[in-house]
């Protein structure tokens, strides 16, 4: 099945197209570059798997000496509701003590995943922890204090896919953010 068919069959609407995504990511890159200014030791931590495309594109707009690292965290089963159980599937490799940590997330929904990750990483004594998320669904927040320092787009309470985000591991390779038809998971 090709992308045209996926689009026609499974997606209700495109809420952020490829051009809008890339424009905003460039702006975020400029904002983050200005924020860290003269810092020379920044670890970018990609939260797998959803943030992988965002990390790849965002990092190319950072005029900063960054190091890449990856952490695989699972908080969802195959459904669309957060289980509340966050599991570290793969920890990061870098020692972050005394270093600036930039966590790169695909979406903050209930905030449970981020809360768990931030609490755990704070115990490792980094110089700072900042969070950049591509998407934010503020209406769904359970962990009210969980806010990103840099935020791409606020979106309504709809289940979205594409540009890294999945439903049952599919659709991550779509270059836009779309809303999945409800009949796909009802
Ligand atoms: P939270 O713990 O509820 O904030 O959920 C965070 C994680 O759930 C994200 O990193 C995504 O992997 C996943 N997630 C939340 N909302 C969506 C969505 O609309 N589409 C796809 N994945 C989502
Ligand atoms: Mg996911």
Number of strands: 9
Cα-atom radius of gyration: 16 Å
Bound molecules: inosinic acid, magnesium ion
- CATH topology-level fold name: Rossmann fold
| Architecture per CATH nomenclature, i.e. the level-2 architecture | 3-Layer(aba) Sandwich
* Helix and strand composition category: alpha/beta
Strand order of the largest sheet: 4-3-2-5-6-7
Number of domains: 1
- Which blocks of ≥5 consecutive residues have pLDDT under 50? none
What characteristic shape results from the CA principal axes? globular
User: Which class in CATH terms?
Assistant: Alpha Beta
Assembly classification? single chain
Biggest beta sheet attributes = 6 strands, mixed
Average of the residue pLDDT scores: 91
Strand content: 25-35%
In short:
The chain is α/β, with parallel strands linked by helices. The chain has a single domain, classed as 3-Layer(aba) Sandwich (Rossmann fold), CATH 3.40.50. It is 25% helix and 30% strand.
Task: Walk me through the structure.
This protein is of the alpha/beta class and 186 residues long. It has helices at residues 3-10, 18-36, 52-59, 112-122, and strands at 11-16, 42-48, 66-74, 87-90, 100-108, 128-136, 150-154, 160-161, 177-180. The chain contains four helices and nine strands, in the order αβαβαβββαββββ. The protein has one domain (21-155): Rossmann fold (3-Layer(aba) Sandwich), CATH 3.40.50. α2 (18-36) crosses α3. The strands form two sheets. The chain has a six-stranded mixed β-sheet with strand order 4-3-2-5-6-7, sandwiched between helices. Helix content is 25%, strand content 30%. The longest helix is centred in the first third of the chain and has 19 residues, at 18-36. The protein is globular, with a radius of gyration of 16 Å. The model has no long low-confidence stretch (mean pLDDT 91). It binds inosinic acid and magnesium ion. Residues 50, 75-76, 82, 105-114, 159-161, 165 line the site of inosinic acid (IMP).
């Amino acid at each position: 099945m090709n992308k045209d068919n996926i689009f026609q069959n499974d997606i209700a609407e495109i809420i952020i197209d490829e051009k809008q995504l890339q424009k905003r990511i460039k702006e975020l890159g400029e904002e983050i570059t200005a924020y860290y200014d003269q810092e020379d030791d920044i670890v970018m931590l990609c939260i797998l798997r959803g943030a992988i495309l965002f990390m790849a594109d965002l990092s190319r707009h950072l005029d900063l000496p960054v190091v890449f690292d990856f952490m695989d965290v699972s908080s969802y089963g195959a459904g669309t509701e957060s289980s509340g159980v966050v599991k570290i599937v793969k920890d990061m490799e870098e020692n972050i003590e005394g270093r600036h940590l930039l966590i790169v997330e695909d979406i903050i929904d209930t905030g449970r995943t981020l809360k768990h990750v931030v609490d755990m990483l704070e115990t490792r004594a980094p110089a700072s922890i900042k969070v950049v998320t591509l998407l934010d669904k503020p209406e769904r927040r359970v962990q009210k204090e969980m806010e990103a320092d840099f935020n791409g787009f606020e979106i309504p309470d709809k289940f979205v896919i594409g540009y890294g985000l999945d439903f049952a591991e599919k659709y991550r390779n779509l270059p836009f953010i779309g809303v999945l038809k409800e009949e796909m998971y009802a």
